[in-house]
Amino acid sequence: MKIDLLTTLREKNPIAFNISNFVTVQDVANGINALGASPIMSEEKNEAEAMVQMADSVTINLGAFTEQQLTQIETVMTFANQYHKPIVVDPVAVGAVHYRLERCNELLDQKKVAVIRGNAGEIAALAGVDWQSKGIDAGEGTGDLVETAKKLANQYHCTVVESGKTDIITNGDAVIRVFNESDLFKLHVGSGDMLSSTIGCFVGVEDDYFEAAQTAVVVFDVAGEVVAKSMSQPLAGSFGPRLIDELHLIDPKTVEKYANFE
Ligand SMILES: Nc1ncnc2c1ncn2[C@@H]1O[C@H](COP(=O)(O)OP(=O)(O)OP(=O)(O)O)[C@@H](O)[C@H]1O
Ligand SMILES: Cc1ncsc1CCO
Ligand SMILES: [Mg+2]
């Protein structure tokens, strides 16, 4: 895990192009802006090429897309591949909604992506492994999480980040587990979306996407854990804004002190 990437990110202030969902777009924009990136969102196909050319990375969140937005997403991903800009995909609820799974499979079959970040239910669905997802949540299953994540990474030759109490990061061969956590993440809708877009920021400044994903996960998880530990009452409503504050404040020393991974 390259802790220096946090400093690099802040020096470079990468432009992080995000196709977000209407539920969590504000938290995502403020979260990664506070961290040190420069977010830009767009839903317009006609400006797709300009957006991609300008951006250092592209994060595609499939949280609430319409048919028209899907056309824009395909266009953006095509340009991103053409201009060699790394793509992070967040396959929201593909384990619960078959339509989403089909569309996401098509995108992944046709375009090259750097990182897929999802919860256990989403990663299992994409890997074709049995699991009971529940809406946007991970749901229940008995499969081996590490093997499932590796299978998906090998399927698409990309890095996979499978989030949960322990986060699993794999390139299909090597595996890193991040143990930093807080129950409050689950009480804040969009924690996962923020994590995916944080990964988007780091792949914008580091060509080794496996390394970039590790740093992103550790920084994000430590930030949440530090916030949770500092709250006298662990309340869902205050966690979101405090997490954004901590993404602003967090420094390499804090990350080094609390990081818990192997
Ligand atoms: N059971 C848990 N206990 C502690 N932390 C968790 C737990 N599950 C997830 N997290 C943390 O929450 C963050 C988001 O991961 P999660 O798996 O909840 O994403 P998600 O399901 O896509 O969330 P959302 O749909 O709300 O965006 C990660 O940083 C992860 O470490
Ligand atoms: C609640 C919700 N519904 C669609 S997207 C989203 C935010 C979590 O991804
Ligand atoms: Mg999610």
Automatic annotation (TrEMBL):
EC class of the enzyme, as a word: transferase
Q: Which residues bind substrate?
A: M41, G190
Q: Does this UniProt record's set of keywords contain Signal?
A: no
Q: What is its EC number?
A: 2.7.1.50
Top-level taxon of origin: Bacteria
Catalyzed chemical reaction(s): 5-(2-hydroxyethyl)-4-methylthiazole + ATP = 4-methyl-5-(2-phosphooxyethyl)-thiazole + ADP + H(+)
Mind telling me which SUPFAM superfamilies this protein's record contains? Ribokinase-like (SSF53613)
| Any single Pfam family the record assigns to this protein | HK
Q: Extract the InterPro entries matched here.
A: Hyethyz_kinase (IPR000417), Ribokinase-like (IPR029056)
Keyword Transferase listed: yes
Q: Which UniProt keywords apply?
A: ATP-binding, Kinase, Magnesium, Metal-binding, Nucleotide-binding, Thiamine biosynthesis, Transferase
- Kindly provide the name given to this protein in its UniProt entry: Hydroxyethylthiazole kinase
Q: Which organism is it from?
A: Lentilactobacillus raoultii
